[in-house]
Amino acid sequence: MFWEKKLNAWVENVRNASALPLRLVLWNGQQYDFSQEAPEVTLKVPQASAITSLLNPSLANLGEAYVEGKIEVEGAVKNIISVANALASNTLKAEGKLGRMVRSVTHTKKKDAEAIQYHYDVSNDFYKLFLDEHMVYSCAYFENGDEDLATAQIKKIDHILNKIQLKPGQTLLDIGCGWGALVIRAAQKFGAKCVGITLSQNQYALAKERVERAGLAGQVEIRLQDYRDVTGTFDRITSVGMFEHVGIKNLPLYFKQISNLLADGGMVMNHGITTTDIDNGESPYGAGEFIDKYVFPAGELPHISVVLKTMQEGGLEAFDVENLRRHYAKTCSMWADNFEANTEAIRKVTDEKHYRIWRVYLAGSAYGFERDWISLYQVVCTKTNTSAQGLPWSRNYIYGQ
């Protein structure tokens, strides 16, 4: 058969490129081993139509085939991700469509709200099964490297609030407040008066409930609101894991809005994922295409150089920049481990398709951060064209020294 000749040739090409701990099992019982070692991953193809995904094994094609049930995969998810990347890199060229292509997305308030709700409104019970007890869904901060996830997430929040020198009685706006962990911490430990905004219905409801349960209703306000609709003035502004949804073309507008909301002498912290491609391209081998289709519709990652440029255009001066890429690799790895450990419970609160999407997404994200496909930067800003009086001379203030 024609497909059989093509498949045999592809298998030999992959074998010659590198020995993979992979076994391929076809619907007719035929199987191929890609090395002499015992396989760590078994890929089962239940019907001939799925062969095309193997012959053109971009991470988008393989991911889609798995999510849609066209192929079945057995093995530890981190091994699965490693083998999938090896298949893609040994078969495809990194440049061109399957390289780090650049997309242009239109971001309206309606589209952004729909994209946020698609990602974050799976269900609160779903997120509880792999996040920490505070439900912090962003890069943790491992001060020593041996912290558990919950401790590292609290350290991340404190790291941010220390960086912006939050003081009792100051007003704080948290753009993309999630389930409220940062504003609750800012009110309880630092004595701030906080506003947290989100576009997720589920986050809004649970964050309000948590604020009330903590007895902070007079100190913390949670709003279902777009950042473009916020008015007023705030002493401090944080944005954690949100600007990935803004859109590259909208970044000057986004930072200008933050600058307009910031009080004179105020400080801003922007914490977000960036691409490591200088042309703002997606993750290679179709990984970005998969994420856009199944995980973060309309998400766009700028390079850090673009972040700093558009901050300046928006009226903000970068004061402190820190790369936490390794921290996010570790965070995503912990999330992936939690996800695997709670497989049975997760399958009870969501459908099989969502389970498969998130299983490969979390482990794949850890892989991408580990290999510098994507990164994470915290940038502290102040308003441009203002005196630097009052700013600390060193970074000692961040660490309490």
TrEMBL record:
According to its UniProt record, this protein's enzyme class is: transferase
Q: Which domain of life does the UniProt lineage start with?
A: Bacteria
Q: Which Pfam families match?
A: CMAS, DUF7884
Record-linked Gene3D superfamilies: Vaccinia Virus protein VP39
Query: By what name is this protein known?
Result: Class I SAM-dependent methyltransferase
* Domain DUF7884 residue range list: 12-93
Query: What's an example Gene Ontology biological process for this entry?
Result: methylation
EC number, UniProt record: 2.1.1.-
Write out the GO MF terms.
methyltransferase activity
Report keywords, A-Z.
Answer: Lipid metabolism, Methyltransferase, S-adenosyl-L-methionine, Transferase
Family assignment from sequence similarity: Belongs to the CFA/CMAS family.
